[in-house]
Amino acid sequence: MAKILILTGDAAETLEVFYPYQRLQEAGYEVEIAAPEKKKLQFVVHDFVDTFDTYTEKLGHTWEADVAFRDVNPDDYVAVVVPGGRAPEYIRNDDDAKRLVKAFFDRDAPVAALCHGPLLLAAAGVLRGRTTSAYPQLAVDVETAGGTFQDGGDVVDGNLVSGRAWPDNGPWMKAFLEVLEKAGV
To answer: Which DSSP letter does residue 55 get?
Structure first.
């Protein structure tokens, strides 16, 4: 069974981890979660409130990471998913997380990124000349990294599939599954 890796950490958005995790399992993939350390992760729930200028955050579910970033061999996986939440804000500083992202881009393997996930891609230096979606307030981060921001829920640029946030889970994963199929993995 082909394996897909999810790169995340504490304060990841619950829905952005669990939806691809379960949807990809449903499609027949083995899915593993990698984090800075192999430990129980605390996810969060972001929601939108009419009177707020930004999202709110509450504690979400917990889940065990299968493996630490440093112990991951990217050649063991056919694709990678980078969900959002606040985790990408700090895992983008992890050299092994950046190494893993670069490895998937170097071999043109399928990559899915959602919400704040493109922060890790920007830190890894793989967005130059690429088009990606992200949480809309990250357009400046995408452009600063040399990418083109596109506001959409299922933005596909070659091997990269991206979306804005958890409300895009359905179209984002549908597009990612199509890229996986096209890649023959």
So the answer is: -
Domains and CATH numbers, the chain: 3-183 (3.40.50.880)
Mention every residue, 6+ apart, whose C-beta is less than 8 A from residue 114: 16, 81, 82, 83, 84, 162, 163, 164, 165, 166, 168, 169, 172
- Are 69 and 96 in contact, with CB atoms under 8 Å apart? yes
167 token code pair: 């409300």
What are the residue ranges of helices labelled H in 27-162?
A: 87-91, 95-106, 118-123, 139-144
**Buried-state track 125-135, b at ≥16 Cβ within 10 A, e below 16:** ebbeebbbbbb
- Tell me how many helices (H) and strands (E) the chain has: 6, 11
Could you tell me if 134 and 116 are in contact, meaning their C-beta atoms sit under 8 angstroms apart?
yes
What are 77-92's pLDDT values in tens digits?
999 999 999 999 999 9
96: left (phi over 0), alpha (psi -120 to 50) or beta: alpha
pLDDT at position 91 is 98
pLDDT of residue 163: 98
Across the chain, which has 185 residues, the per-10-residue mean pLDDT values are 98 98 98 98 92 89 98 98 97 98 98 98 98 97 98 98 98 98 98
Q: Which phi and psi (to 5°) does residue 159 adopt?
A: -85, -5
Q: Is 116 a catalytic residue?
A: yes
Among residues 116, 132, 166, 173, the one annotated as catalytic is 116
